[in-house]
Design a protein that fits this description.
Elements lengths: L2 E5 L2 E8 L3 H16 L3 E2 L8 H10 L6 H21 L3 E5 L7 H11 L4 E6 L2 H14 L4 E6 L15 E5 L9 H15 L5 E7 L4 H7 L6 H17 L8 E8 L4 E8 L3 E5 L4 E5 L4 E8 L3 H10 L2 E9 L3 E8 L11 E3 L1
Parallel strand pairs: 2-6, 3-13, 4-5, 4-7, 5-6, 7-8, 14-16
Antiparallel strand pairs: 1-2, 8-15, 9-10, 10-13, 11-12, 14-15
């Protein structure tokens, strides 16, 4: 069922909920399956209640977390080129969060005279509404059509529109297992897009391991709090009794696959009950729960992934060998076997 609402006095904001009872059942079963794996796993989507989204915004401000600064700098440098190339009047943002970096693209669209509509897609309704109301005050001509949805599986909810730019920023594509999850996600996204639409995706680049590991093990402990918050979200959603203080944050670089893994380590033997799943877990001391992967890319790896999903790489932009943004376009005849691109250092 879809619920729509307009914010009082802000008729240019519309938010629709696309989390139906059937979706809830599917999410319960997916969590049950993930917790039965070895190592046990909690899907990344459960990081992002309103508090989790707030914690992630704090992570982005940390001195160790280079990704956000590098991507923001790069976006500011290329935004006008991206908008001129795409000709987009609608910006769709997958996993929009607080839409902090979004304004760079919206500003470029406003300067180009194409700005029409912004479509944030996120599971966190509260932060979406707050950011939408801020944006319509900042951009008098802007319409915001927010979708509270799981953007990994519910891309069919995207509204029909003219030429669009779909943005997937922050390196979030790295949170998907590349051979199966990421490729399947891209194929679903491709099916929702027209051949004249463009896709802008951010990726964290392969680099020195100490630099990467420091970004996930900050001295202030904000990433650790963010990691443990996933247990609070699961408690609220599934009537569980995880005690977050009984788990230690661990993040390390996995050379096989060039990825960071974030885990929660059980500090003691304990039993956890998830009433909504009718499930009990027996956790040993030292047992780990995998909560996130973050795959790192080079150009060849991303180009191959895009091709598997039906996209051709159009342009490749790099910031300080730390972070890259790739502009891609759907391949009209289906998944591409390869594509050439102009590199922008």
């Amino acid at each position: 069922m879809i619920h729509a609402a307009s914010s009082p006095g802000l008729q240019r904001v519309r938010v629709e909920r696309h989390l139906a009872p059937a979706d809830e059942w599917a999410m319960r079963e997916a969590l049950r399956k993930a917790l039965a794996e070895r190592p046990r796993r909690i899907p990344t989507q459960y990081f992002y209640d309103d508090h989790g989204s707030w914690l992630f915004e704090r992570i982005c401000e940390l001195p160790e977390y280079y990704q956000t600064r590098a991507e923001t700098t790069l976006l500011a440098r290329i935004a006008e080129r991206v908008i001129a190339t795409s000709g987009a009047g609608e910006l769709v943002e997958l996993g929009s969060g607080a839409a902090t970096k979004t304004r760079i693209l919206l500003d470029a669209m406003a300067r180009a005279g194409t700005l029409d509509c912004y479509v944030p897609v996120d599971v966190s309704e509260g932060i979406m509404r707050r950011s939408a109301e801020e944006l319509v005050r900042a951009y008098p001509q802007l319409l915001v059509h927010g979708l509270v949805a799981d953007f990994i599986t519910d891309l069919g909810a995207l509204p029909a529109a003219g030429r669009r730019l779909v943005a997937f920023l922050g390196g979030t594509i790295g949170n998907l297992e590349p051979r199966h999850e990421a490729a399947a996600f891209l194929r679903r996204l491709r099916a929702s897009m027209g051949v004249e639409d463009f896709f802008l995706v951010g990726v964290d680049l392969i680099k020195q391991v100490p630099r990467i590991e420091a970004a996930y093990n900050d001295d202030a402990g904000v990433t650790a709090a963010f990691n443990r918050n996933v247990l609070a979200v699961v408690n609220a959603r599934f009537e569980a009794d995880f005690e977050p203080q009984r788990y230690r944050h661990r993040a390390f670089y996995q050379h096989d696959g060039d990825r960071i893994e974030m885990r929660l380590v059980s500090c003691q033997a304990q039993t956890v009950r998830l009433a909504a799943l009718d499930l009990s877990l027996e956790l040993a001391a030292g047992e780990e729960i995998l909560t996130e992967i973050s795959v790192k890319f080079d150009r060849a790896r991303l180009e191959a992934l895009l091709a598997a999903g039906g996209f051709g790489l159009t342009e490749w932009f790099v910031q300080d060998d730390l972070f890259a943004l790739a502009l891609a376009q759907p391949v009209a005849s289906g998944p591409a076997r390869g594509a050439s691109a102009r590199a922008k250092a």
